[in-house]
Design brief:
Elements (H helix, E strand, L loop, with lengths): L21 H4 L15 H8 L4 E5 L6 H11 L6 E5 L7 H13 L2 H6 L11 H12 L6 E6 L7 H13 L4 E7 L8 H5 L3 E5 H4 L3 H10 L6 H11 L3 H11 L5 H7 L5 H10 L6 H9 L6 E2 H8 L4 H10 L4 E3 L6 E4 L1 H14 L4 H14 L3 H10 L3 H17 L3 H9 L3 H5 L2 H14 L2 H13 L6 H22 L2 H12 L13 H18 L3 H18 L2 H15 L4 H17 L9 H13 L3 H14 L6 H17 L3 H15 L9 H14 L3 H8 L8 H13 L3 H12 L8 H17 L3 H15 L6 H5 L3 H10 L4 H10 L14 E2 L5 E2 L9 H9 L6 H8 L3 H15 L4 H10 L11
Parallel strand pairs: 1-4, 1-5, 2-3, 3-4
Antiparallel strand pairs: 6-8, 7-8, 9-10
Length: 915
């Protein structure tokens, strides 16, 4: 079945956008598009399953009439459908009912039942309906009565009679009522009884695929982006798309035409004028024109712009009759116009009242500002060229926009000021600095900020307090981006001081400033490695952001709070990173810089856990969201995580490139960031893996960086590579006794692992076993096994497993991760990690999930099921369920068979490595 576009009509005929001919529909003539079918099976299916009464309600040109004609024809129902069109402003009830009778008698079922009737002066419509109900009572087969343009039926008596027929007709009489607006019939009863099907404008909108078929039928090819823009601009309105297709046929530059297509285009304007605007009374026409410059309109605002008093009622009436007016809320208090209709209205307004435009925009700016809608207020002030008002409004609300995640909107508003206006206003210079911080360049932000500080004296006295608050906020954010810790602390503490900004901050902004200061201070404390203080301030920031309804700030606080939590627990940090990501996604900020640190931080944790596919996805998200030059700290974390990922894959050269990129980004900071030390340590260990020990020695000969544990780990790796395990233990001693701190437990586990390798090389198996057990103790809770992949020690792990350990399952997993064909893996195929930590076996079988994989790791230990459940923090039933799934996927029936099969497939280490 398809939605047939009228493509083959006699020469000289004209076709309207609604699908009916010019002669019978009284629409603007539109030339026919030729050849092809646009399939709309979804709508045909709905009509086929429709209830006894269907109402198709949509504006002119939505394709209502032709949809019905196509469906009836395609469904083979044309001979069982009586079709009546109500003529414009129909007042004659008798004529209406005679048309109904004649149409019914023209059908096969109706010709046998409906008696003929001749018009007469005393013919009563009520009597006609009663007679019609009586005639149709014996109806045994479905009969459709299609009444088109029911909105044109102006006779209240005829409407009441139609209602009687609809409510009391036999079940096999089906009604298809076509209208531009909701009918004044009591259809609510049918709706409640499930006997009413409603198809509205949204249902009739053309999809991208349907629009593509329409244009192909017209012989017009458009690039996908241009076609999508056209569908968006027309909002899928059938007439708009058909008119565009007609105009585009043979056009020399179809892409440009599609990009510029609007309601002022000649054919569209003619159609909308004839079908909508010319039908309105003068007061309604005036309201439409004088409110057309607003993206949305309320009754109160309409009254202000027109000097009237019935704006809301008029707008509601226009929406009801399908005059391209759309209600935006359930209360029907806010409205907008269809974009093409708005284009036409604005064109007519410029023609009719060009001198009034500035005054209308100015009045709208004042109204929106007074009612708490700053974005629209600024736009209308700019349209009125009232730059002083626009600048004051944006200065007052810029912080709120940023903290609402509307940084892109704030940027667009700033772009609406002429360059000479920005150059002469220090208030705007501060905002330009803040905008550069979020979008472009730290250096440019610094220049704008310096100019604003120099020109502070030119700010009017009554504006200076708020100007200084904006100045302080921008200084704080710039210092945070640059890693200028003393400046961050100074500005944050000033904003947190009681009453410091209460008199100068915009109304209701004190809590915003406090939340921003808490997050900034917590971040600064992180850079100083004061994790406990940082976590406390960031938790306060999260709570306050939630309390004052600033989720954008909450995302930032959660992301940095997760970093603070990672000092003590990867699992807790991952939970907080996920909370930040989910909050950002909930508000549509999945690709915004504010969430980039969460993606990068969680990606790094997933590398520590060797969940590499998931890490790859997260780091790709971070790369898309991040603007490295204005977020150097987050950029460094991203490159650091990328380098770790390359190391985990054994791509040491690419890892080196990533660490070098992290080093370059770190150069944008005014002071060393705490992540700089892990980055340097990774870089040096990568050089060791590449055999560049001489370069590592040269790097270590510079300023002493061994006060940090990560660098001592790098020195130990170097000494082990040089065959000097005793020097390695000397380097590691301060890390192991806690005097040289490390960033997280992953680095701590690496230190104990390197110590175990060194002690084993020195022939001290007891000390080696003790250090290895401590390394495994640190790794077990969070599964952070990256160090064991970076520094593989399979023989040491096997011996440790045989001697007895609390981590037999973990050792088996580590051995599998480090297995290589023909080497440590005993010739068994190696495995790959699934996106959620699951294992994909190297044969055609259903992959094991992450949970099933974790249970599988415990099977060789032969721990009882309750103990496995305790180790995994899940219920006994859960473990048994996973074991059953493992058995099914491996094709076995017992635990022993599962272990043997898993070892055969390379999912577990061979038995020679077992405990």
């Amino acid at each position: 079945m398809g939605y047939l576009v009228n493509l083959s009509i006699p020469q000289g005929s004209a076709m309207t956008p609604d699908g009916s001919s010019q002669a019978d529909a009284r629409h603007c003539p539109v030339p026919a598009v030729r050849g092809g079918i646009v399939s709309r099976p979804g709508l045909f299916e709905r009509l086929g399953k429709a209830a006894r009464v269907s109402q198709i309600s949509a504006p002119a040109g939505s394709g209502k009439t032709f949809l019905l004609r196509s469906w009836l024809s395609e469904s083979g129902l044309a001979d069982s459908a009586a079709r009546v069109t109500v003529h414009g402003g129909e007042q004659d009830a008798q004529q209406f009912w005679l048309s109904i009778l004649d149409a019914l008698r023209d059908t096969i079922p109706g010709s046998k039942l409906v008696r003929p009737l001749t018009g007469a002066p005393d013919l009563d419509g009520w009597a006609v309906v009663e007679r019609l109900l009586e005639d149709l009572e014996p109806l045994e087969y479905p009969l459709w009565l299609v009444i088109d343009d029911v909105h044109e039926l102006r006779s209240a008596e005829a409407l009441a009679q139609l209602e009687l027929l609809v409510l009391h007709a036999p079940a096999d009489l089906r009604f298809l009522l076509v209208t531009r607006g909701d009918l004044r019939l009591r259809l609510h009863r049918l709706r409640l009884e499930g006997e009413l099907t409603e198809i509205r404008a949204a249902d009739l909108r053309f999809t991208l695929d349907e629009a593509r078929a329409l244009f192909e039928a017209a012989g017009v090819e458009l690039p996908e982006l241009a076609l999508a823009a056209l569908v968006q601009r027309t909002e899928g309105w059938a007439a708009g798309l058909r008119l565009a297709a007609l105009s585009l046929a043979g056009h020399p530059d179809p892409e440009r035409f599609a990009a510029e297509f609007s309601g002022s285009e000649r054919t569209v304007a003619q159609y909308l004028l004839a079908e909508v605007l010319d039908h309105q009374s003068e007061p309604v026409r005036q309201l439409l024109l004088r409110t057309s410059m607003c993206e949305r309109i309320s009754g109160e605002l309409a009254d202000l712009l027109t000097g009237g008093s019935a704006g809301e009622r008029i707008l509601q009436d226009l929406e009801e009759v399908g005059a391209f007016v759309v209600a935006l809320d359930a209360r029907r208090s806010w409205f907008r116009y269809h974009p093409l209709f708005a284009d036409l209205l604005q064109l007519e307004l410029r023609r009719a009242e060009p001198a009034e435009l500035a005054a209308l925009h100015g009045a709208a700016a004042g109204w929106f500002a007074a009612h708490g809608y700053p974005v629209e207020a600024v736009r209308h002030a700019q349209a009125a060229q009232d730059w002083d008002l626009a600048g004051r409004l944006l200065s007052d609300h810029f912080l709120g926009l940023v903290l609402d995640g509307q940084g892109a909107t704030a940027h667009d508003l700033l772009a609406g000021f002429p360059a000479e206006v920005v150059a002469g206003d220090p208030k705007l210079a501060v905002l330009m600095a803040a905008d550069e911080l979020f979008r472009r360049s730290l250096d440019a932000a610094g220049r704008h900020l310096a100019r604003a500080e120099r020109e502070m004296a030119s700010v009017p006295a009554d504006r200076r307090g708020r100007f200084q608050v904006n100045l302080a906020i921008t200084r704080l954010m710039l210092a945070q981006r640059r890693g200028d810790l003393p400046a961050v602390v100074e500005e944050a503490q000033r904003l947190l001081a009681p009453g410091e900004s209460a008199d100068t901050a915009p109304p209701g902004r004190c809590q915003d400033l406090r939340a921003l200061a808490l997050v900034s201070l917590g971040t600064a404390e992180l850079w100083a490695l004061r994790a406990n203080e940082a976590e406390g301030h960031l938790e306060q920031g999260v709570a306050l952001a939630r309390q004052i309804g600033r989720p954008w700030l909450g995302v930032s606080a959660l992301a940095h709070g997760a970093w603070a939590a990672s000092f003590r627990s990867f699992r807790l940090a991952a939970e907080r990173y996920l909370q930040a990501i989910e909050l950002a996604q909930e508000h549509g900020w999945a690709e915004e810089p504010v969430v980039a640190p969460a993606y990068a931080g969680l990606g790094a944790i997933r590398v520590w856990q060797m969940r590499l596919e998931e890490a790859e996805t997260l780091l790709e998200h971070a790369e898309r969201a991040l603007r490295g030059e204005v977020e150097p700290a987050a950029g460094m974390v991203l490159h650091l995580a990328r380098g770790m990922l390359e190391l985990a894959h054994g791509r040491d050269g690419k890892a080196m490139t990533a660490f070098k990129a992290a080093e370059r980004v770190a150069g944008l900071l005014v002071a060393a960031h705490p992540r700089s030390t892990p980055m340097r340590a990774h870089l040096l260990q990568t050089l060791v893996r590449l055999g560049e020990t001489g370069r590592v020695e040269q790097a270590l000969a510079g300023p002493d960086e061994t006060g940090r544990g990560e660098m001592r780990n790098a020195v130990a790796a170097l000494r082990l590579a040089q065959g000097d395990p005793r020097a390695a233990t000397a380097a590691l001693a301060p890390v192991l006794d806690g005097s040289a701190s490390v960033t997280n437990l992953g680095w701590a586990s690496q230190a104990f692992l390197l110590e175990a390798i060194a002690r084993d090389a020195l022939g001290d198996p007891v000390a080696a076993g003790r250090a290895l057990e401590q390394a495994l103790d640190l790794v077990e809770p969070d599964g952070a096994v990256f160090a064991f992949v970076l520094h593989p020690a399979p023989e040491l792990l096997r011996r440790h497993a045989r001697r007895g350990t609390a981590h037999a399952a973990l050792i088996a997993e580590i051995l599998d991760l480090t297995a290589l064909p023909g080497g440590m893996g005993g010739g068994q195929p190696s495995m790959t990690r699934g996106g959620l930590g699951g294992i994909v076996p190297p044969r055609a079988m259903q992959p094991l999930s992450g949970s099933e994989t974790r249970v599988l790791r415990f099977l060789p230990t032969y721990l009882p099921v309750p103990e496995i459940a305790g180790q995994l923090s899940v219920s006994v039933n859960t473990v048994r369920t996973h074991m059953r799934h493992v058995y099914e996927k491996l094709g076995v029936h017992s635990r022993a068979e599962a272990v043997e099969q898993a070892r055969t497939l390379g999912l577990l280490a061979p038995s020679s490595r077992g405990p």
